[in-house]
Design brief:
Helix content is 42%, strand content 17%. The chain has twelve helices and 15 strands. It has helices spanning 30-56, 74-115, 180-185, 255-279, 293-315, 329-335, 341-345, 351-362, 406-417, 421-424, 429-447, 455-470, and strands at residues 3-5, 14-25, 139-142, 147-151, 159-163, 172-176, 201-206, 209-220, 230-235, 241-243, 248-249, 321-326, 366-370, 394-396, 403-405. Helix 4 (255-279) packs antiparallel against helix 5 and helix 5 packs across helix 8. The chain is globular. Bound molecules: zinc ion.
């Protein structure tokens, strides 16, 4: 089941869109599905034209005026433009992220080159331009203007799918029969009635079978009281989630990293074999493929682990509310220096979205807060410095000596940022830093006369202790 969340204003009940997938379409008369095939062929070709346009010369615009010739009706034409704009938008943003990653790797490479720390085999990163997406599988994301779902009077079927076709005035009627589990999913458990199905539907053709996807909206009331205790969540790679009460959930180290290593080895062997066979003149289509099924499996594993971690975190903090980071792609990248393209693909940067989704589903209050400097700020005295983190795990304040796990310090900062109006009003990172340093000055004024041990020395002592601790 796929899920999507609509943005709502704070305080109002939250609306989630849920999908009922894999409703197989079987027409008693095969001619009907042939008509659908013909329609899909024309539709796919037109959508492809707009995808190419939106990925190359124009900015994606779902409301662009039609500019290609087609035998489809104007309504179908508009649906194709909308779908193409959506595809192009996500392709463009994925490409932009990949390009930024490349620039990042390039600057790291150049830094190391200047430092003289470059490894012998290290190659300068190269950018390979992305291909414009090619639509292969028929997929139609249609609205009520071109496909209508109608209740069937006859009890043999549940609905009729009324599809307008190339033949004007002669719509296609395809019977829809729901499986018992589809019916159960579409029944509101409170009222026992059938839910209201959204007017947009999706049709996919896979392995010669047409599949229908329906969606419905569900409203979830927020059950958390606004004065419930606040738990801050820090997001990372070493620990997917760290909470301000010092608990940790999920990690990329251990099992997942081992899998990733194995996967990399496998690909390396495969590439070697390919080269070898190529030299011997084996034709291209007989060579082992370079795409990695194990890579896909690894991505799925990471997603499952993230899901499990987020669920457990919520389970163990009943009756709490959450504050979590409003991460930018850049700050996530900073947290994930060693992460490779695979891990980026696996949506590690989307952990905050998992948190949002889980909270919405459970009716729990969760608020995103600014993440700027949350890992460099001392939770005790607000002093901000990159050097407060002598290594990845340790936080050790250079001024007051406060020492703890780096992720715990960050999650505590995040917890206290909930309801911090001054911080919320900051327009950029510089303003956040200035505010935190002002707070640090106030802290110094307050404790000027009560500190016996010079704070700096205490800090250094604590840091050396801590670093022997973690190695
Ligand atoms: Zn401090």
């Amino acid at each position: 089941m796929k899920k999507r969340r609509k943005r709502t204003k704070a305080g109002s009940p939250q609306v989630i869109t849920k999908a009922v997938t894999h409703i197989g379409l079987e027409a008693p008369n095969p001619g009907k599905l042939t008509t659908l095939d013909t329609l899909a062929e024309v539709y796919l070709a037109l959508t492809q034209q707009y995808v190419t346009l939106f990925c190359s010369n124009e900015v994606p615009n779902g409301f662009r005026a039609p500019c290609f010739l087609t035998s489809l009706s104007e309504r179908w034409h508009r649906v194709a433009i909308q779908q193409a704009a959506g595809i192009a938008k996500s392709w463009r943003s994925n490409r932009a992220n990949a390009y930024e990653d490349y620039l990042d790797q390039l600057s790291e490479y150049q830094e190391q080159k200047t430092d003289g720390t470059l490894e012998d085999q290290a190659k300068e990163p190269e950018w390979r331009e992305w291909n414009i997406p090619t639509l292969r599988q028929p997929c139609i994301q249609a609205n009520g203007n071109v496909i209508k779902l109608e209740e069937a009077e006859d009890s043999t079927f549940d609905y009729w799918l009324n599809v307008s076709t190339l033949d004007k005035g002669h719509p296609l009627l395809i019977p829809v029969k729901l499986a018992d589990y589809h019916k159960e999913q579409l029944t509101d458990p409170q009222t026992g009635k059938r839910r209201k199905i959204n007017s947009s539907v999706t049709l996919n053709k896979r392995d010669e079978v047409w599949w229908l996807t329906l969606t419905y909206d569900e409203t979830v009331a927020v059950a958390t009281s606004p004065d419930a205790p606040v738990i801050g969540i820090d997001v990372g790679i070493a620990n997917f989630l760290t909470t301000s009460d010092g608990k940790q959930y999920g990690t990329f180290n251990g099992k997942l990293r081992k899998r990733q290593k194995q996967d990399r080895e496998k690909r390396r062997r495969k590439a070697k074999l390919r080269k070898c066979l190529e030299k011997r003149g084996v034709p291209k289509d007989k060579l082992p493929s370079t795409s990695s099924a194990t890579g896909q499996r690894l991505i799925r594993h990471v997603r499952q682990e993230i899901n499990r971690a987020v669920n457990l975190c919520f389970d163990e903090h009943q009756d709490c509310q959450f504050a979590y980071e409003q991460l930018s792609v850049a700050s996530m990248r900073f947290k994930a220096r060693t992460m490779n393209a695979y891990m980026r693909a696996s949506n590690l940067a989307h952990i905050p979205d998992h948190i949002t989704w889980n909270a919405t589903k459970r009716g729990v209050l969760a608020t995103r807060v600014k993440s700027a400097y949350s890992s460099q700020e001392c939770h005790m005295c607000h002093y901000v410095d990159r050097k407060n983190r002598p290594n990845q795990q340790t936080f050790c304040c250079r001024v007051c000596g406060h020492t703890t796990h780096a992720d715990t310090n960050a999650s505590q900062n995040i917890a206290s940022r909930l309801g911090d109006l001054e911080l919320r009003a900051c327009q950029n990172r510089q303003e956040v830093k200035a505010l935190l340093m002002r707070r640090h000055e106030q802290w110094k004024q307050k404790f000027r006369h009560s500190v016996v041990v010079p704070p700096v020395q205490l800090g250094l002592w604590a840091c050396s202790e801590a670093s022997t601790d973690v190695g």
